[in-house]
């Protein structure tokens, strides 16, 4: 089963992000997608193609799989495997119940990106733990929105730039962490670059990064941070030795969440020269493959 394309509001799940979309959702249409038959279509692409060209709704791709059922990569509502994939103006959600910290395997991926040279424009991604599994390859996200609680930007091995986008951290009584980055050696040329974005939400004391592996590299540049961000900023996963190998950098952030004086000592306050490589599209070799957002 691939999942469902749901052309309806997500407000019933407690998610609110585009009030203007509600005006065009008076007659929602639900399209069921199932590979083995029994649905309206066998593939998500055929379901999307069935939507009239003049439709004003943003297509919502929804599934409710969990890691316990399908494994971390298999639980994704949408998985992209091809190179040069472009996703535009989609909402991708995993509607499995929020992880309560007690149920094993309750993590639920909304989007898994496993192709190289992939771009997403104006896309919204909703889940709680492990919302985005940035699996492998070079990726570019612009004007996107992502929502989650713990490790909801999860990476196995790649480079990506997140530009002009919003990260929304939902409240959780135990722990909230935005990214879990999997770089294991300083020789690996992988990492995250968040540029000209903002961090909002309902959480308190959320960490920007945790050192899931020994040498994560994550940089926030020109980012507006609200009070959802923990003053320490970064977590080394209760393994002090990782403070010597992580690369956690910030440059020209703003907002009440930008507590430079309270940051962990290993959090690097970048100079302009140090920040420049993370600001360039060359970071993901995008000058060789990236195209502008499609006009729809």
Automatic annotation (TrEMBL):
<protein>
    <recommendedName>
        <fullName>pectinesterase</fullName>
        <ecNumber>3.1.1.11</ecNumber>
    </recommendedName>
</protein>
<dbReference type="InterPro" id="IPR011050">
    <property type="entry name" value="Pectin_lyase_fold/virulence"/>
</dbReference>
<keyword id="KW-0063">Aspartyl esterase</keyword>
<dbReference type="InterPro" id="IPR000070">
    <property type="entry name" value="Pectinesterase_cat"/>
</dbReference>
<dbReference type="Pfam" id="PF01095">
    <property type="entry name" value="Pectinesterase"/>
</dbReference>
<comment type="similarity">
    <text>Belongs to the pectinesterase family.</text>
</comment>
<comment type="pathway">
    <text>Glycan metabolism; pectin degradation; 2-dehydro-3-deoxy-D-gluconate from pectin: step 1/5.</text>
</comment>
<feature type="domain" description="Pectinesterase catalytic">
    <location>
        <begin position="73"/>
        <end position="284"/>
    </location>
</feature>
<dbReference type="GO" id="GO:0045490">
    <property type="term" value="P:pectin catabolic process"/>
</dbReference>
<dbReference type="GO" id="GO:0030599">
    <property type="term" value="F:pectinesterase activity"/>
</dbReference>
<dbReference type="GO" id="GO:0042545">
    <property type="term" value="P:cell wall modification"/>
</dbReference>
<keyword id="KW-0378">Hydrolase</keyword>
<dbReference type="InterPro" id="IPR012334">
    <property type="entry name" value="Pectin_lyas_fold"/>
</dbReference>
């Amino acid at each position: 089963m691939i999942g469902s394309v749901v052309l309806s509001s997500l407000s019933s799940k407690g998610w609110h992000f585009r009030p203007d979309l509600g005006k065009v959702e008076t007659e929602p249409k639900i399209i069921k997608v199932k590979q083995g038959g029994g649905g309206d279509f066998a593939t998500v692409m055929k379901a999307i193609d069935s939507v009239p060209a003049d439709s004003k709704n943003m297509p919502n791709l929804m599934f409710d799989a969990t890691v316990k059922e399908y494994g971390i990569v298999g639980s994704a509502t949408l998985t992209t495997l091809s190179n040069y994939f472009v996703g535009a103006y989609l909402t991708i959600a995993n509607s499995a119940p929020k992880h309560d910290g007690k149920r094993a395997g309750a993590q639920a991926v909304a989007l898994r990106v496993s192709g190289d040279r992939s771009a997403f424009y104006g896309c919204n991604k909703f889940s709680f733990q492990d919302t985005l599994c940035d699996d492998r390859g070079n990726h570019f996200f612009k004007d996107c929105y992502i929502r989650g609680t713990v490790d909801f930007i999860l990476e196995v091995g790649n480079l990506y730039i997140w530009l002009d986008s919003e990260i929304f951290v939902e409240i959780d009584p135990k722990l909230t962490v935005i990214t879990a980055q999997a770089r294991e050696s300083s020789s690996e040329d992988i990492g995250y670059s968040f540029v000209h974005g903002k961090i909002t939400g309902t959480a308190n004391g959320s960490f920007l990064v945790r050192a899931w592996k020994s040498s994560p590299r994550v940089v926030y540049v020109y980012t507006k941070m609200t009070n959802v961000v923990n003053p320490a900023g970064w977590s080394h996963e209760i393994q002090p030795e990782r403070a010597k190998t992580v690369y956690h950098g910030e440059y020209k952030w703003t907002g009440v969440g930008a507590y430079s004086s309270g940051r962990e000592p290993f959090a690097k306050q970048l100079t302009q020269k140090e920040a420049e490589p993370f600001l360039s599209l060359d970071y993901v070799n995008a000058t060789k493959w990236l195209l502008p957002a499609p006009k729809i």
